[in-house]
Amino acid sequence: MPSPIPPLDPTLTELPRATGLSAMLAGRLAASIRAGEFQPGDRLPTEKQLVERYAVSRAVVREAIARLKTDGFVETRQGAGAFVALKPGLANFRIAEPGLLDAADLAHVFELRGVVEVGMAELAAERRSAADLAALNAAFARMEQALQSDENGAAADDSFHAAVATAAHNPYLAQFAAFLAQHFSATRALTWQPAARRSGGTAAAQAEHRALLDAITRGDAQAAGAAARRHIAQAAGRYRAADCKPKG
Amino acid sequence: MPSPIPPLDPTLTELPRATGLSAMLAGRLAASIRAGEFQPGDRLPTEKQLVERYAVSRAVVREAIARLKTDGFVETRQGAGAFVALKPGLANFRIAEPGLLDAADLAHVFELRGVVEVGMAELAAERRSAADLAALNAAFARMEQALQSDENGAAADDSFHAAVATAAHNPYLAQFAAFLAQHFSATRALTWQPAARRSGGTAAAQAEHRALLDAITRGDAQAAGAAARRHIAQAAGRYRAADCKPKG
DNA sequence: TTGCGGGATTTGTCAGACAAGCTGACAAAT
DNA sequence: ATTTGTCAGCTTGTCTGACAAATCCCGCAA
């Protein structure tokens, strides 16, 4: 008889992982830049000054600076120094950790996701191949079965949205959608929780999935976009409802 | 197993823009991960092994690993080693340097930009304030003046698109649009070059700007989205035409 | 004023060392 | 036989010192 205790969920075991002095220093410097303490083009303190100021070794300082460099906040020139980038943070697009966003920011990110999903649905309707449709139908069928048998269809839900991304035939669009979706895994899990089953939320989401699938199958870009827009809006509504529930 | 990565020789450095040994090493390791030579969850070679294989110091190796860490490709655990992230490269969204994209990739990025710009235009039409409209009209007037007097209106063009982003009242959307637009500064400059003036391309772009401005002023989201879509499509067309021109 | 050293400064790289934390194996205890 | 304690070896994190390469700044000369 194996242990009656199920294995720990790896995603729940890594909370306090603010590893390292260099990460802390990088965070403080980035905060200083964001706060406007250093203007674009300004020179940062030298490594020696930072070593003395924060009482860490030069290795730590260099690692922190390197992190800011890859984040696009600073640029360094050998012999000259480290300078705040002209367009800080525009070298790559990054969003704060899922748990660190307040409600307003989350709404904005959700809206960005909606824009991308709508565009993706329209393109998917125009470009879907036979193989794309097969994948979409398979994922939909798995969600349908999960809905009937009270199983958790979150994985099938993910597969469905991934299939839409594939059908749009644009790897950058798909990668960005996956990047954004990452921040809303809790939302999708919510759709398949018992509370949502009882209130009809799960069935409503599935109806939205069906509308999207039908529009993509017909090749109706406008309808697909509208269906995606409705799906995202409803998901936002369900998320807000669940979020406010503890208050009464 | 033979080394899948050829040794690094600083004297044969291929890309002078990747300043530094650590950047080169980081690029090679990232390429290996993308190529699937290391699967998600796999352990990377230890720092000592990398030091011996590439004949660089441990500082270089550590800086390269640190870069991959902030890029979301690897995670390190003290005492255990460095591991390929479960979802490599999904910690942030990044696009290759403007000069390194081939035509197909560029088209995909352009399409992504179109999706975002359309959504942004729709939201701007719904949310624009009086101040937003004033900024839009000011930028449009500057473009109009540049068009009449044969000046370069690229800066005003940037201001106009930035004003649309502001009017959408979503900082994440605006930041992402700016991030993408970065890769197409050449396209916007193209619109205001003498060749475009003579062929009427500049005037056509201005007409598209006017349609977008009118729709946003009226608060007509659908028309604003359509105008933005047309503007991006035309810009793509102008860009392709200019790109193929040297061939004949 | 302009051009040109040349020393001082700063980042990039190297080397060695110790501390902190993990892994696996072996011995001891139940 | 299973569990627990211990330990040795390995790996990453941090510290220290040094040198090379690139840049900056200031004084000097034409």
Order of helices and strands of chain A: HHHEEHHHHHHHH
Any low-confidence stretches of chain A, pLDDT <50, length ≥5? 1-18, 244-248
Q: What is the average per-residue confidence, as pLDDT of chain A, rounded to a whole number?
A: 82
- Give Rg of chain A in angstroms: 23 Å
Structural class of chain A: mainly alpha
Largest interface: A-B, 38 and 39 residues
How much beta of chain A, percentage-wise?
under 5%
Major sheet strand order of chain A? 1-2
Largest beta sheet of chain A, briefly?
A: 2 strands, antiparallel
Question: What sort of overall outline of chain A do the alpha carbons produce when their principal axes are compared?
Answer: elongated
Characterize the quaternary organization of these chains: homodimer
Q: Count of DSSP helices of chain A?
A: 11
Helix content of chain A: 55-70%
Tell me the distance between the termini of chain A. Answer: 43 Å
Number of strand segments of chain A: 2
Describe, in plain words, how this protein is organized in 3D.
The structure is a homodimer of 248-residue chains. Chain A is 64% helix and 3% strand. With 248 residues, chain A is mostly helical. A two-stranded antiparallel sheet of chain A has the order 1-2. In chain A, β1 and β2 (81-84) form a beta hairpin. Mean pLDDT of chain A is 82; it is low at 1-18 and 244-248. The first copy, chain A, binds a DNA duplex (30 and 30 nucleotides) through α3.
